[in-house]
Amino acid sequence: MLDEKQSKESGEVGGIWFLDGDRVESLARSDVGSATVLVPTEQVLIVAADLPLPTRRQRLSALPFAIEDQIADPIGDVHMALGEEVSPRRHIAGAVRHSVMSRWVDMVMEAGLTHCTIVPDALSLPVPDEGIWATQVSGERVLVRTSDGIGFATSLTQLAGLWAAAGNPICIAYGEPLPAEITSVPGEMELEPLTARLMVPVMDLRQGAYAKPRRPVPLSARKVLAVLAIGVLAHAVIAVLDTFALQSIADERRAEAQALVQRYLPGVVVDGDFAAEVKDLLNSGGGPPRSRFFPLLVRSSGALGQAGGGTTLRALSYNERTGELTLQIEQPDVIALQRTQGALASAGLNPVGGTTTLQSGVAGSSIVVREIGTGTTP
Q1: Going by DSSP bridges, is the β-strand pair 117-120/90-97 parallel, antiparallel, or unpaired?
Q2: Domains of the chain
Q3: How far apart are CA 90 and CA 362, in angstroms?
């Protein structure tokens, strides 16, 4: 358990933690990102649910109906969480009793891990290839993750029966060896460290009533916002001038705007259509435009500041209709790129990474950032 001083500060402590009875114990400390707390999978039903709906809000509404036949408890007694899409229109989902979830949240809050992510420990295993199980034995307890991304925990004595019922899949054994009657090969966990695997967890149980509180916007993020807002609003003025065919003035303002951004953020190209933003600003007689853009930009900027050195923002654009902020990011390697996406997720955002490119020792990706609970308008 954290001591009193650590508890006050541990909301900023990153790394992996786990529940040991009534205690929250550290497994791997990290100076990057927020904390992830692993909880016993025995108390969480993890399933893959078919949710052929276009928005996250609609999928959350449909989730209880999609998995209610797999839940023994009354629906009102159960907290449900929606995870990543693991195949087209198929998502990881979790269900845990409210009484259990409430106790877990109380424990992590008491330990000072205010903004931590809560993940069932079976989901800390790598996803194996089709028809293979990933397993980890610890004493008489076994964690299992299957090729469809879901996971479960069982006892060593029950494992053989479950394995046979599943068609005797080959098992990758991480940690202690499996019983001799189970076909297995040893796995090398060092190839993908735990902190890397959980940088962007496949599912965070802290949703809905148990969602982590919003972080206060740090002063550094406000400064970044001020610089970017100047460049963005200047670009918005350019868009309005372009609309009215004042091309010569637009070219002049474009050069001024880009020079201003280059002064504070070398290499950044401000891109996007912000004409509507400026019209709102002019019609209101001043003050910030009424849009999701500025809060999203503040939180994204703060997250990029927490992602560690080496982050290069090459370009950004914003789609007012969908509420999506697109960031063109470069990092020294893929792990650093994953760290950036994890920092955005830890800031309470919903980042979706695009195709990763590797060129001349630099990893690049386009990351689309949305507020959790928002999505493309159907």
Answers
A1: unpaired
A2: 4-120+196-210 (3.30.420.380), 132-191 (3.30.420.370), 219-371 (3.30.1360.100)
A3: 32
Residue 264 has pLDDT above 80, yes or no: no
In the Cβ-directed half-sphere of 227, how many Cα atoms lie within 13 Å?
16
User: Do 320 and 302 contact (CB within 8 A), yes or no?
Assistant: no
Closest CA to 144 of 122, 160, 120, 174: 122
Strands 90-97 and 23-30: unpaired
Q: Are 120 and 203 in contact (CB under 8 A)?
A: yes
pLDDT of residue 20: 86
Tokens of 296: 């999203």
Question: What's the CA gap between 77 and 95, in Å, rounded?
Answer: 10
Bridge partner list, 341: none
pTM: 0.56
For 163-188, the pLDDT digits (tens) are 999 999 999 998 888 999 999 898 87
User: How many other CB atoms are there within 10 angstroms of residue 30's CB atom?
Assistant: 16
Q: Using CA atoms, how far apart are residues 305 and 220, in angstroms rounded to an integer? A: 8
3-state secondary structure at position 73: coil
Q: Which region holds residue 200: left if phi is over 0, alpha if psi is between -120 and 50, else beta?
A: beta
Would strands 132-138 and 170-175 be described as parallel, antiparallel, or unpaired? parallel
- Total number of residues shown for the chain: 378
Residue 247 has pLDDT above 90, yes or no: no
Other Cβ atoms within 10 Å of 309 Cβ, number: 7
